[in-house]
Amino acid sequence: MGNANVSNVTIRPEEAEFFSGLARDWWNPKGKMASLHQVNPVRMEFIRDAIDAHWGGDSRSIKPLDGKSALDIGCGAGLVCEPLSRLGANVTGVDASAENVSVAATHAEAGGLDVRYMAGEVAGLDIGQFDLVTCLEVIEHVADKQAFLADVAARLAPGGVLVMSTPNRTAASRVLLVGAAEAVGYVPKGTHHWSDFITPEEFEELLSGVRLEVTQRRGIAYGIGKGLHLSDNEALNYILSARRKD
To answer: Where are the transmembrane segments (predicted)?
Structure first.
């Protein structure tokens, strides 16, 4: 998760080091990364919808990504790579933290999943292009967002689909995602820097700058009795899909 010639190094070294320190606890659903475990089903719901909408697939299919390649950029310890593999994809996970990649590879192997993990910046790895590219909760940790998105877009195969998520830069997110969330231990202190958050409008403009257009966008909200869920409320977090402009 996470992030000095700009196109090769966009993830700040201190960000990569921060998440490396959390690597061993990544798969503990009640540990320091508990918030990711709680949001992951919501992110996967959106990804599944985006896959079906983009390729016109059967929503009842168990392996909608069968025969397709997928890349998760900023993969952490593999929370998204593993379900993508179970959906049938040939999955590659890339992370700036070698510690994260090591934990991810060990966990996948223990679960009998064939996922390729690589440590480094996506721009510096010769890995080709992918039908599905995911990059979740990463861009807010990136120094040069436009350069990073150019690297992300370069990994998207013709006819492919991109899914990205990030916190919104709002008064609510400043209070809840940074202040309150860190105060109560929902996320580790230092996880978020509010000034690095981007609004949906800013994100769409950045994507347009690398010739990608947004096809769907939803908020990720919290409700009493509903927990985290996809919503029209984008005040805290949002997730989007995009494709190459014609």
So the answer is: none
The CB-side HSE value for 2 (13 A sphere, CA atoms) comes to 26
Half-sphere exposure (Cβ direction) of 57: Cα atoms closer than 13 Å: 18
Task: Give dist(CA 139, CA 146) in Å, integer.
Answer: 10
The CATH number of the structural domain formed by 13-67+133-244 is 3.40.50.150
56 in helix, strand or coil?
Answer: coil
Residue ranges for the known binding site for S-adenosyl-L-methionine are 43, 74, 95, 136
Distance of CA 109 to the CA centre of its chain: 21
Tell me phi and psi for residue 116, to 5 degrees: -90, 125
Q: Are the beta carbons of 50 and 43 closer than 8 angstroms? A: no
What's this model's pTM, rounded to 2 decimal places? 0.85
Binding residues: 43, 74, 95, 136
Terminal-residue alpha carbon distance, the chain:
31
What is the mean pLDDT for each group of 10 consecutive residues in the chain (246 residues)? Answer: 39 53 64 76 97 91 96 94 97 92 92 95 93 95 92 97 95 70 48 79 97 97 89 95 92
Query: Are the CB atoms for 72 and 80 separated by under 8 Å?
Result: yes
